[in-house]
Amino acid sequence: MAVIEEGLVRRCLERLRDLPFVEKATLLAGTEGRRGRPGATRLRIATPFVTEDLDLVVLRTHLTRAAVDGVLARMAGRARRPWILFAPHVGRPLGEYLDEQGANFVDIAGNCRLRIGRRHVARIEGRPAERATGQGRGIGAPGFRILFALLVRPGLVNEPIRALTGAAGVATATVADRIARLRDEGLVHQRGHARVLTAPHRVLDLWLKGYETLVRPKLLIGRFRTREQEPEALERHIEETLGREAWWAYGAGAAAHRLTGYYRGPETVLHLDPRAVDVAKQLHALRADDGPLILLHSPGPVAFEGAAPRTVAPLLVYTELLLAGDRRAREAAVEVGNRYLRALLEPAA
After folding, report:
1. What is 140-212's CATH number, 3.30.2000.10, 3.40.640.10, 1.10.10.10, 2.40.160.40?
2. Nearest Cα to Cα of residue 97 among 345, 330, 316
3. What pTM was estimated for this model as a whole?
4. SS3 for 111?
């Protein structure tokens, strides 16, 4: 079966075919794609001496460190063969980071890292991204909160608009507009009277980028330090002070440890909803740029649908762990993903 080469995928394939040792780079038919068209989850690269199949991951958004760590977490322990990332542009720092992780990639400018067998290695960096043409207005922070709610509770896509409005904590008009745009982008498909989220992994990629670049900066209250130095002592202080109120929960490492027992880390992340007032003052916490206590507002009421007491939704735990930017935190994200987010983390093109 022939596989259709479209857009980003086609252009990345062209860049691979430009490499001197690549004789052929061909998509292999895989699982059925959107609206019944053939999909592709593998890439076959032929060289003069060896032919190798690679799993294919496509990110259609511009990369951030969190998005890259999301891909690494998604592929950890899942890839049965080497894999390659196709992306719009991979800047030098992220290219170096992917290289350190042993990950192959190529972008539409021709930046790449590719290893085929022991004889063929390509490393190209520093090519600038193409100038973006008009793409309409961006999603905006409220739009990303809608994506988050849909990822936490996919069934919301088929419920009345007011249900998604309540879960995301945004205006009804914003929800209606975002659902319409997701339909136009092929991420929501109408089947009779029902709507279906067709590519959760792509929505996840959008969410990871948006959370890092736009949402989290707006949610951040600050970093703080208290008299309690050890994480366990700080947690006791938090729980004794804030009590059983429903408007706070742990995120990142503190939540991950409750979910998997794998990793805690030195930082304590608290997510708060709008009812939380003067929490830092209640905790006798002082602002500190390197403080281990991080206070954040939540990206909507659905954020408090945790899988264990006093934890936020596993997706938010996973997201914050990726933003931590270190190996242990990413490994913890993999554990959370494997237990709670498998439907979102399947490798896909």
Report:
1. 1.10.10.10
2. 330
3. 0.78
4. coil
